[in-house]
Input
Amino acid sequence: MSTVDRRTKRKQLLRQKILDVSRDILLSQGFAALTMRRVAEAINYAPATIYLHFQSREQIAEELCFAGLERLYESLQAVTGKNAATRLAGFARAYLEYAGSDPETYRLIFMADPQLTKAVFTHRDSGGTGEAALGLLVKAMEELQVGSKKRVAKPIELAELFWAGLHGLASLRLACSQALTGDEFRLAQVLAAAITDKISPERIKEQRPQRSKG
Output
C-alpha cells in the first residue's frame, strides 16, 4: 500500500470513528448532547481535527440520518408478497419495527429538528433512499387500484397518507406511549386494511349492494 493509500485509509477510519462516537452520544444522550467538542473529547482529538471531516454537528447528524434511511429502506424492501395488500401490511410492521429497534436514529431523522429533517430529505448526498422507500408504498397503492374505475386519490397521495399514519404511530410510541390505548402494530394493520378496503376494486365489488330480482 502506498503512502497516499495509507493516508486515505487513515482518513476514512477516522471519519467512521467520528460517526460511530457520534451515534453512541445520540443513543445515550440525545441530539442536544451532540457537539463537536464532545465528539473530539471522546476520540482524544482536538476539535479542529473533527472540522477537517465535518463542518458541523448537523452534517454529522445528516450522515447518520442517511444511514438510518438506508436501513429503513432495506427493511421495507425485504417485505415480499405478490399481493399488494399483503405487502402493505408487511410495510406497516417493518416500519414500526425499524422505529422501535433504532429509536434515537428515528427521532433524529423525523423528530429532532425540522431543519435537519428538511436537509435530510432534500440533500442530494442522501442517495435518494427516502424517495425509494416512498416508491415502494406508491407501487403498492398503484397495484391496489388496478381495475378500479373510481380513484379515491392518487397513488402518491395514498402512499404519503399511509406513511404519515405510520409515522404518527411510531412517534407517539416513542414520545408519549401513554397516548396510545392500543398496540401500535395492531393499529398499523387496521390502517393498512382500511386503505386496502377503500381503494381495492375487489373490495368495492364485494361491498356493492345486490340488485333485487324481478
